[in-house]
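Question (not urgent): is this output format expected?
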Amino acid sequence: MTRSFSKILMIFILASGLNHFGLGQNFKFSGYFADFVVYQKVKEDFANYFGLDKNLFLNLGRIRFRPEFNFGRGSGIYVEYEVDALYNSSNLFFNPAETKTRRQLLKLHWNLSRGSNFNTFHFIDRLYFKREFGDLNLTLGRQRISWGTGRIWNPTDLFNPINPANFSKIEKDGADVLSVKFYLGSFTDIQIVYNPVDKFKMSNYGVRFRTNYREFDFSFMSGFFDKRGVAGFDFAGNLLKAGARGEMIFSADVKNFKSNFFKFILGFDNQFTGNIYGLVEYHFNGEGKVKKDEYEIGRLANGEILNLSKNYVFVMVNYTLNPIAVFSISLNENLNDRSGFLSLGFSYSVSDNSDLNLGALIFWGDEKDEYWYYSTSAFVKFQFY
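Got this back:
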């Protein structure tokens, strides 16, 4: 696949040059480079159980290109193409660069090189055509479908939500869908989404109605995902001086009523002062298990679920030291097995188009608790746009 990589890269470089010299008036080119340097301290009992090294070093480098081809009259083709390189000093239990996605019909992911400690690969994460027809918007291809209002969890986002414990994930994965949105007013629309998967052997369908009443936005959704009927809603607005948001879904399998479940979140956030921002969010995961012996680790590794248990709370506080420096601290706890993690972060804007982030995630839990499977990590991330 080296030839395909070279051709794609050359096209982007030439297109960027044309745009720089003003020869591509309907072409835009942007992107970023990000590098994660990570140290992980693997728990001794976990390392012995799975035969892993107790000390692990990783380096994940990402280059992402974002060309846009605008044809006028509200139409265009949009692409996001990424090249990744991952070094790991020893075997990994969770690979941060190869999380699986279930909403893609076409395989647009290729290996450049593979080894026991160093791997490079490239993939197309967005590739879609967009056209506006007055009050109708049509989008076809690999795109971002992001439903819901939660800041940490999104039960109504059944396309590719992000695990809160995955600190290396920046964008949500693209989904291969046909999306049609009808605008009914300034704050009201209906979106219909069709997502074929598994070589068209199975398909997912969804419809979402969104509107506004006074200081609150509301959405109602329904559909058929992973052979299950789903219905839900979300809201976001102001409650006194705080922001309030929530989501809920009911998922049903008509052939197995014992597998039906609810999920919901309820969250509040507030800018207490010019420097201090706080957030709290509770998540009930009806699909999860109460007993850790019943945890579905295989489904978590395959990206089918994000959490193993039923009840979670996430608390975060940000302190803005000045316009270019922010400290953050957050706590995520599984209320059933009492495992969790503490996240510490510092973000510094080095320049108008570069950021430096320092962080640490400290996990705790007894053997086979949910967050026992994760390793305490410290990382440095540099990002240049």
